[in-house]
Amino acid sequence: MNHFIAKSARVRSTPFTQRIEDYGVQSYTVYNHMLLPASFHGVVDDCNHLKKNVQLWDVSVERQVQIKGPDADFLAQLMTCRDLSHAKDHVCYYAPIVDEQGKILNDPLVMKIQPDTWWISIADTDVLLYAKGIAIGKNLDVEITEPNVNPLAVQGPKSFELMKRIFGEEILNLKFFHFKRFDFQGHPFLIARSGWSKQGGFEIYVDNDEIGLLLYDQLMKEGKDLEVRPGCPNLIERIESGLLSYGNDMDMNDTPLECGLDNFVSLNPDIEYLGKDILQKQKNEGVSRSLVGLLLDIKEISVTQHLPIMKEDRFIGTLRSACFSPNFNQCLGIAMIDKSHQILDQDLSLEINGKKISAKMTNLPFQK
Ligand code: THG
Question: Which residues sit opposite 337 in a β-bridge?
């Protein structure tokens, strides 16, 4: 049965909602209190198309938390375990936000867009409230806002050709995770070479609704022969690629070290952030559980809550997300498993809708 999302001001539409409805969006999810398209032609078809062509994604839900003012650098660093002390202009950083317990509250990209201004491009939790709480508690001189910025991602192997047609050759010089301003109709849009897929592409931070819609239409027009289509973050592609989803694979009960984000946890003595002592201790002692891959002996799956995983009769962890991958011709899962029970290829089981399913443990990212 199809269910519908009742729209309201609280479940916010985006500047592109009318467009994607005209193009036939099939389903939505809600992310940062805003509509995020979830499929257009079915998740499998969307995935195949993304791997071959180019898609325009309305990812307005990737809201920007703007921190501006004399204490902006200090506050940005207090909130993340990533070392931002040498952060460069024009570079995006994947920077887990942690609380005083070292637990992960969000996993945004952060960018210093001006000498005293950061954009935190958030996943699905209210980072603005956390930032305000810290700023008020510590009496910091910052202004924290959510500007009217609605990212539009251009993803897929043909995104380079499409972006070149609109913004010129120069856009092809943009390196992975770098950003720069590029003109469209006299408006300088901030564009990064990034996006929540491993098929290549860009993210355009649309800060002008009217010109943004002209840009949307121009991308669709210029991309006709490239078979451009509206799309959205794709469950299958992101699991195959090992991109973690906050709220699914990890939440505020997990630490970044348990989620395999060690490369983004700095213990540099010169920086200060909340939860650092606890992460230092966990780093020294080692984690007692971590995210791993699972290969599931089932043809179809939809994970709507964390599912218990058993080894014989013992509970050893939870399945956090999964999908059937046509490419691997089996179900791939991401699971949090006790370290003491992590043995490659061992036989595990879980119960889905009263049916017992067998599974094998594997490494992340998945390899064929
Ligand atoms: N783009 C922007 N904002 C976002 C996302 C995005 N906000 C929400 C969510 N996605 C944040 N989470 C991620 C997770 C992974 C990546 C980006 C955002 C990502 N990771 C690369 C990888 O895993 O290969 C690179 C990580 C690195 O090397 O630094 O791209 O997608 N604007």
Answer: 290, 317
